[in-house]
Amino acid sequence: MGTTTASAPGGTPYAPGAILDSTQAHVTKLQHAWQHIAQRDRDGLPLYNLSGLERGLHFPPDMPEWVDDDEWAGALYSDKVRQQGLRHLGGDPDRHDIAVTNRMTAALFAALQVTATPGSTVIGVSPSYSHPAVVRGVRDARADFVDTVGVDAFAEALNAADDVSVVVVTRLAVTYDALSETDLREIIDRAHARGALVVVDDAGGARIGPAILDQPRTLALGADLGATGLDKYGVIGPRVGLLGGRADLVARARSRAFELGSECRPVLYPAVVQCLEQYDSQRVKDLVNSTKTVGLKLRERLGDWVEETPFITRLSAEAIRHQYEVRSGNTVDIAPVEATAALAMCMLRDYGILTVHFAGLPPGTAALLIKFLPPETIAELGGADVFVDAVDSSITKAAQVASDPKALRALLMGNG
């Protein structure tokens, strides 16, 4: 394991392609995907959310209609948000507070704006690499970012730096590898011993850690600030960021979010409370077990190139591209992320299966992640074998256009 500092110009851990060369290109790709969704709806064809994310809006069933207003909802639900948020993140009401932002990225951004000292060093540590939102957040805080993999590389970077203001710990990486509790505690203790603040990027780890790995909740680890997204793994949305931690730091981060216009509108607070109140760790276990069942079928059909972690199944972008060459007999000279995008677009267009590839702009990884699949949605689709058929067939269909730049562009971006 070693220290990593390299990333693509947009902060992603993978290279852009000739077609998907910017965030704008990924937005255009998403708009084209929406056209397929709209067309399937017009044609009366089914759609299946198998992204592993829940970004709906669920208000308490007994909420009076007049509460549907920023001021009324803020007044009536802010205390409940704090209470339920602290419970979810393992906070202490006497020391900690909660702020809600309009996205997980906004929570990290606000946290880094008030903790990272301009010109100082911020060290990221994770099982693989820090999310692009962390890289960009440090950049915009005008600090220098050093990314590390694992506790040993982190210790080396910490010893080498003179002025570390923040350590950003990612418990569950985008690759769905996780840090052990022993490593988490050692990292946090070492950071605090050097006088650095600790921010935990716990987007999905806030639930995977306690529910699957029997680890403490985010703030119980000793973090100064920690954030999670309420669209990830066992929760039902809305897509907001939940930021918790030391009350003084949360107050500053909340204020910064208001200045940037990235605070969560209070009208969504009832939905935040509904989300946190219904959370049950058993749901996380059910999602992981469902994913393992589908992943086993995928591996049986497609072979050993299908990767598995303790939580999800992963199709690496490089392996997908190689499959295109094998199935078409042609040389495929495209960026790995474009290979994944082609597969994801075929699955959506032809089978109505929405994958997580479309969730990030740009995605946090070039791989296609098969993760946290709701068992009821897999059953509605027709079962694990039907899902595997869709993946297999979509690989073949994408392979037919992958070596033709014009056809690939039309698949990913449309003909507009």
Task: Walk me through what this model shows.
With 416 residues, this protein is α/β, with parallel strands linked by helices. 48% of the residues lie in helices and 13% in strands. It contains 15 helices and 13 strands. The strands form 3 sheets. The protein has an 8-stranded mixed β-sheet, sandwiched between helices. A 3-stranded antiparallel β-sheet has the order 10-11-13. α3 runs parallel beside α4, α11 packs across α12 and α11 packs across α14.
Give a brief description.
This protein is of the alpha/beta class.
Give the SSE layout.
Elements: E1 3-4, H1 23-42, E2 48-49, H2 70-89, E3 96-101, H3 104-115, E4 121-126, H4 132-140, E5 144-149, H5 150-160, E6 164-170, H6 181-193, E7 197-201, H7 205-212, E8 225-229, E9 241-246, H8 247-260, H9 269-278, H10 281-302, E10 306-308, E11 313-315, H11 317-328, H12 336-351, E12 353-354, E13 368-370, H13 375-381, H14 384-399, H15 405-413
Parallel strand pairs: 2-12, 4-5, 4-6, 6-7, 7-8
Antiparallel strand pairs: 1-5, 3-9, 8-9, 10-11, 11-13
Helix pairs in contact: 2-9, 3-4, 3-8, 5-6, 7-10, 10-14, 11-12, 11-14, 12-14
